[in-house]
Amino acid sequence: MRLNVRYSTQYIYTTPARRIVQLLRVTAESFAGQTVLDWRIDVDCDARLREGRDGYGNVTHMLYVDAPVPSLRVTVTGRVMTEDRAGLVQNLPSDLPPGVFVRVTPLTRAGLPLRELAQALEQQGGTMLEKLHRLTGLIHMKMNFDTGTTDVDTPAEEAFAAGHGVCQDFAHIFIAVARCLNIPARYVSGHLYRRDGAVVQEAAHAWAEAWVEDLGWVAFDPTNGICADDSYIRVACGLDYHDAAPFAGARSGGGSETLAVEVQVRQSQSQTQS
Q1: Coil, helix or strand at residue 74
Q2: 4-24 as b/e: b if 16+ CB within 10 A
Q3: Tell me: the pLDDT tens digits for 119-164?
């Protein structure tokens, strides 16, 4: 599938921000099943961008704004060719050993209910892949998608107890349970083409990857109850949200801020016409 992405993030400050430093993880890379045709980052003010790569292999850009600005808009645009590989994630340009991703973080720490869920999955038996598919389905069934009840610092256990959250909460719950089963699992941020026709979205998407022996990394999206297919554009990964967040940073001055995010993921017009 040919997909076009436009990801706009705007900060509006009550007083001019004197200096801004942002870490961006917004650049997709090519691997088996995902070919990046072009990708760019535009900033609406005088800024410096320095490209690098973090410890998880993600492409990063440090953004520096050294003069006072009343607002900051960063716009990411790209064209990507995707292929449905039934969730298999192979030939990444940079990666770490799977064992790194069994480490528990505050956002993915499993309390008693999640440990009991892991125990129940273990008792039901089956292969590792079958357990992960069942876990994906259970989270999708038990959790309600709700944008107004959690934030980026909500732990998996808290979201699970409440029974609702957003895609990052679904991913954290999946990761917490998988790690209870001693399965390496990691958080993934990226974009999703909505087959229901909803082109404009309020945020980027998030899902999880788990290491399955003899297969490697497999992408599971508990928010939608499926493995990632050609509707998904993978951008960054880490132990949890904080390692793969699209934007993180600090500023001097600026007072309070208003944040506006808009994501558009469309099929290429030439593809839809054909």
Answers
A1: strand
A2: bbbbbbbbebeeebeebebbb
A3: 999 999 999 999 999 999 999 999 999 988 899 999 999 999 999 9
**Cβ contact 161:143 at 8 Å:** no
pLDDT in tens, 183-239: 999 999 999 999 888 888 989 999 999 999 999 999 999 999 999 999 999 999 999
Q: Nearest-CA neighbor of 209 among 165, 246, 164, 178?
A: 178
CATH number of 2-82+246-273: 2.60.40.2250
Geometric angle at alpha carbon 137, from 135 and 141, rounded to 5°:
115
The full 3-state SS of 6-61, as one line of letters, equals EEEEEEEEEEEEEEEEEEECCCCCCEECEEEEEEEEEECCCCEEEEEECCCCCEEE
What's the chain's Rg over C-alpha atoms? 19
DSSP secondary structure letter of residue 143:
P
Write down the domain spans for the chain: 2-82+246-273, 88-244
Distance CA 268, CA 169 (A): 30
3-class state of residue 81 by DSSP: strand
Structure tokens at 75: 């716009």
CA angle 6, 228, 202 (to 5 degrees): 35
- Name the CATH topology of 88-244: C8orf32 fold (3.10.620)
